[in-house]
Amino acid sequence: MELTSRETWTVIHGLVLGTLFLLAFGGGLAGLWSLRPGFLTAAGIRERMGRLYFGVWAMALVAWATVITGSWIVYPWYRVKLSPVGDDAYAGCAGATLPNATCSPRDFLKSNVAGNTETWHGFGMEWKEHVSWAAPILATAAAFLVVYYGPRLIGRPWLRAAVIVMFVGAFAAAAVGGAFGAFLNKIAPIV
Amino acid sequence: MTTRHDIDAAPELRELNLADKHDGPGAAAIVAAGIGVFTLGLFTVLAEVSAGIHDFLESMAFGQPVGPLAGKTILASLAFFVSWLILGMMWKDKDPDIKKKFWLGFWLGILGAIMTFPPVFTAFG
């Protein structure tokens, strides 16, 4: 039972960091939701703010780690051109049923050698690789707002709602990336 | 400085004796996030519109086969952090209307996200 280096990085990018992101988002959203007038005592506020600060910054840092490992470590393996022959960019994919040493996942999907797969790249991967980068940006700004205002958000419901919008926006961007990442790794795994 | 957090609505805050804070740094973070996401979307579209911009974005990949995604994401990240720094310094001790700044950041972010949607940016190709 072993994982190759590429499989290990795919697991780190998608499973490990993705799980941490989800955990941090769930905790952070619950914490933000409860910052409402009358919900907490002063002692309760003091007790949970430190945990909330940790959670929102953890989510932001994990989001950066996820997109950086995804774009700069895993993505080059996905898109590398392995065996073009003349004008045929997908010559190495002839007869392939999965990506292999002569057919990268992107070429495999675009070549349609195993069914109608091009849209997985043209829509799924193209959307995932771009919109995912909104997640760390929004999560970082939201984390800063939570730490900067702290318990004052309880007395400013509109601002608290604005932070939640940004926080959920970060999650939505990451969800697109995570969902398509899972599908793409099923249909055209990194090898 | 008047208190912006409503202690009457949330009397539990009275016990915490919180000093009030300027809205400038918060507004700077919100608008900068919008600028960052907008920049991401803008370069995603521009890479389709112009081969020159596509190649310029690709040249920022430090020899890695990342393609133009390298430049799009580096520039978007830079736009976020640099605009945050500049706006943060401009608004450090100020109180801009944070609702207006939120909506500015919100719509910049929405536009940016729309421009990262493949049916939209490929329409410019």
Protein described:
The complex is a heterodimer of chains A (191) and B (125). By secondary structure, chain A is an all-alpha fold. Helices cover 71% and strands 0% of the residues of chain A. The radius of gyration of chain A is 21 Å and the shape is elongated. Chain A starts with a helix and ends with a helix. Chain B is mostly helical and 125 residues long. In chain B, 62% of the residues lie in helices and 0% in strands. Chain B has 5 helices and no strands. Chain B is elongated, with a radius of gyration of 19 Å. Chains A and B meet through α2, α4, α5 and α6 of A and α1, α3, α4 and α5 of B.
Write the layout of secondary structure elements.
The complex is a heterodimer of chains A (191) and B (125).
Chain A: H1 5-33, H2 42-79, H3 105-111, H4 118-131, H5 134-149, H6 157-187
Helix pairs in contact in A: 1-2, 1-6, 2-5, 3-4, 4-6, 5-6
Chain B: H1 24-49, H2 51-58, H3 69-90, H4 98-115, H5 118-121
